Amino acid sequence: MPAAKPWVPLTCKHCAKVFDVQPWAAKGRKKFCSKACFFAGRELKGLFTKGHPDLVPPEKRRHSDETRKKLSEFQRQNYRYGPEHPNWRGGLRSERKTAMAQYPYRDWRNAVFARDNWTCQLCSIRGGYLEADHIKPWCAFPDLRYDIDNGRTVCRPCHVKLDTHGPKALRFKES
Length: 175
Known about the structure:
This protein has 175 residues and is of the alpha+beta class. It folds into 2 domains: 8-60, no CATH class; 95-174, no CATH class. The protein contains 6 helices and 4 strands, in the order ββααααββαα. A two-stranded antiparallel ribbon has the order 1-2. A two-stranded antiparallel sheet has the order 3-4.
């Protein structure tokens, strides 16, 4: 077994304490004897980090109230939405997809699930992958879209078999 290389003495840049390190760590990597000295040394240099808010003086932690108001007003005035937004790609989402991401639909869906006790109304399985189904389809009856009585909880396999699922629902629109 080869002999271990001797430890190399170094001097801490913060507290001037002499400490020993292995030779591979002595080549410019190790400068402080402990984490406390490392962070204290950074504080003295004025290098504040997000990960260590206790090292940052209170006056440097946040924007002032005046600056926060100015930022808020600027963002509200210059908020670009829809076609004015630089990432706009021509309105690729359908009206239904857009509506399903908003609160009225989510509230309707949660109310239907709660009313049915998170149980499929066709096969009586509780839990699993549940979906809220419109009894009278979304596309054909816009006035009943958020009516809780027009909804039922169904599991995914049962929902696929229904006449109100996917393109099959368009038959209701034509008649």
